[in-house]
Design a protein that fits this description.
The complex is a heterodimer of chains A (153) and B (175).
Chain A lengths: L1 H15 L1 H4 L6 H11 L18 H15 L4 H12 L14 H28 L7 H11 L6
Helix pairs in contact in A: 3-4
Chain B lengths: L1 H21 L19 E3 L7 E3 L8 E6 L4 H16 L4 E6 L3 H11 L6 E4 L3 H5 L7 E5 L5 E6 L4 H17 L1
Parallel strand pairs in B: 3-4, 4-5
Antiparallel strand pairs in B: 1-2, 3-6, 6-7
The chains are: A mainly alpha (153), B alpha/beta (175).
């Protein structure tokens, strides 16, 4: 009888956390995959944190959702599509190239081209401005005197 | 003189962008669900767990779905606005009690007044995920075909009610 009781008590902690264990890493491989995916997803509550690192309630729920979908055998892309369908491209830290993100993706290169064009134009203009002037012998001598004042001292 | 014009123009444009940016709300993420059918659900009613409520029941009506919770602070801000709206009976207002304990939800409605025709109980927040809820309160305007037409993120104010929600409801009802 005593042994049975001891055995029962030993089992108690198991019962106590039975409800929560599912939420934690009971499958380390799956958990790793989930974290890997969640690192590239934005938590919408604390917007600059990833879904993997956020401690918000919503992030907990979404991680649970991702875990469950992985258990169901959905691919990473399917899970991403699922989240995008609900929360929009905003959940992605890596925004897709779309008509309204063209400026985001290619704007810097456009700016670079504009800058280069401006630079080339400016340099050409400057080249035209520099004109050779001929100096008379007297001017050359004066210039030499001005540039070497030490002679006088 | 001319050499200062371009830097000045660039400065003004940049300052303009930054000024507009100051007044944007980064929490307002455009929902991809606008113009899409409202996700179906079948949840037990808050006040009567034996009865169900599903979004499909509302086909043929323009209605509002307000996501709320007893723990949500800004829900208390919008509460008087919702109570006033429900008294006017312009549009049926349904609630989704999001990630809340049933008894807490009921207690809060008893204390603050119940503006909803009925509330559905989404204890685990799964329907909330389907609706892309990320900051309670959120309010959805759903048309007769069951398509989401507008989503208000954050508390409904007199301003958003009269400038956006009610005109849209009137327009959708007329269709």
């Amino acid at each position: 009888m005593k042994n049975v009781l001891i055995l029962l008590f030993c089992l108690l902690p198991g019962f106590a956390c039975a409800g929560e264990a599912k939420d934690l890493a009971d499958d380390p491989v799956l958990e790793k995959r989930m974290i890997g995916l969640a690192e590239n997803l934005r938590c919408l509550v604390c917007q600059n944190e990833s879904l993997a690192s956020s401690r918000s309630e919503l992030a907990n729920d979404l991680r649970r959702e991702v875990r469950e979908q992985m258990q169901k055998g959905m691919s990473d892309q399917e899970i991403i599509d699922y989240l995008v369908a609900r929360y929009g491209d905003y959940v992605l830290f890596d925004p897709p190239v779309k008509s309204y993100t063209l400026l985001l993706w290619y704007g810097p290169f456009a700016l670079l081209l504009v800058g280069l064009a401006g630079l080339i134009l400016q340099l050409r203009k400057r080249k035209n401005k520099i004109t050779e002037t001929h100096l008379s012998d007297e001017d050359v001598k004066r210039a030499a005197d001005l540039l070497n004042p030490s002679k006088d001292l | 003189m001319m050499r200062f014009i371009w830097p000045f123009v660039i400065f003004v444009v940049l300052a303009g962008f930054l000024y507009v940016g100051l007044h944007l709300n980064p929490r307002e993420v455009p929902s991809p669900l606008i113009g899409k059918p409202a996700p179906a659900f079948n949840l037990s009613q808050l006040h009567d767990p034996t009865k169900q409520f599903s979004a499909q029941e509302m086909k043929g009506q323009v209605w509002l779905l307000n996501v709320w919770a007893s723990w949500c602070v800004s829900c208390r801000v919008e509460h008087p606005v919702l109570l006033a709206l429900s008294r006017q009976s312009i549009v049926p207002l349904y609630g989704l009690d999001y990630k809340d304990k049933r008894e807490d939800g009921i207690a809060w409605l008893q204390e603050g007044g119940n503006p909803y025709v009925l509330s559905a109980s989404d204890t685990e927040g799964r329907i909330g995920i389907d609706y892309g809820v990320y900051g309670v309160p959120e309010t959805y305007v759903i048309d007769k075909e069951g398509v989401i037409r507008y989503k208000q993120i954050g508390p409904v104010t007199q301003q958003s009610l009269h400038e956006k929600i009610l005109p849209l409801v009137a327009e959708l009802k007329a269709k």
